[in-house]
Amino acid sequence: MVQFEDYNVQSHYNSLLDLEDASNDFNARQASSVVDTLIRDLFLRRGVQDTLGLTLLHKHFPLDDNTKMVNYGAVAYPWDMADASSEVVRDIYPTAWRFTDTGGIAPYEFGYTQGGAETPGVRKEESAEFLQELQELLQKHNLTSLLGLRLLDAATSEPGVEFTSGSANITLPREVFANNQGRHVEALWVFQKALEGSSGDPLVYKVCKSYCFKDNKGKHVKKHHRTF
Fold first, then answer.
1. Which of 104, 168, 177, 196 is least surrounded by CB atoms within 10 angstroms?
2. Distance from first CA to last CA of the chain, Å, rounded?
3. Looking at the domain assignment, is residue 4 inside a domain?
4. Does residue 99 contact residue 107 with C-beta atoms inside 8 Å?
């Protein structure tokens, strides 16, 4: 059984690749062929597709020690836990996870809600077999450092582009960045069943829910385009 690890900013966030490197590695390893078939089938077979999405692992920028990247509404901000009260800390919950070099799974991004929040589909016992199978699949295809999981409930429901202002990531309507369509990098995949096909078998397809931007030199400009 995959063991859950406590968050460590250096091991679990700062060790993530930058967007350019993650995107290049994803393409070089032809990871789409695995995402579109084996991983898609696993999500649907285990019934987690409505709760979890598959994400391209990358970091926005390095975080300081004792800091978490926390999403609240349209803003994601590096939050120093030393500045947060115990009540606030209790209301911060994981929204994204990665498999670790030590064989476990750990959160690397978080959300905040007053009153706390459930994290369905991750810590429940019924997810154990899914996590084990996904870990083995990623290891087999050398994708552990590139692909992770994201809680779909944590994503904003309106289409938008996430950009960085200072140390905060802020989401604006995607129309603001309509001219940047050519610089998108797929960053979050959701697997869904379509209407029944003529054969009686469900048609399964991948929906790209989120994009990240690269600038003209291929660097991460910290803008994220969500298509919900």
1. 196
2. 33
3. no
4. no
For the stretch 32-68, pLDDT in tens is: 999 999 999 999 999 999 889 999 999 878 999 999 9
User: What is the token pair recorded at 95?
Assistant: 């929204």
Residue with tokens 């690749």: 17
Distance of CA 67 to CAs 2, 13, 64, 79, 107, Å? 25, 10, 6, 5, 13
Residue 3 lies in a domain: no
Q: pTM of this prediction?
A: 0.84
Q: Determine the Cα–Cα distance for residues 28 and 145; give it in Å rounded to an integer.
A: 14
Cβ atoms of 52 and 151 within 8 Å: the answer is: yes
Looking at the structure of the chain, the number of domains it has is 1
Cα–Cα distance for residue pair 174/177, rounded to 1 Å: 6
Structural domain boundaries, residue 166:
9-226
